[in-house]
Amino acid sequence: MAAKGNRILIYLGCTKCKAKNYVTSKNRVKTTQKLKMKKFCKHCREHTEHSEVK
Fold it and tell me: CA 24, 35, 4 angle in degrees (round to 5)?
């Protein structure tokens, strides 16, 4: 079986309502700080900042 490598799966949660909306991957070696993106939250029904949650 192939090695998993440096990429890990992370969940992105809305900073306004705390709902986990997206799953993405990041390189744990190159990106050491928490990932933040502006995405659409279906619970808030607006574009809000989503950050990495555990």
Answer: 45
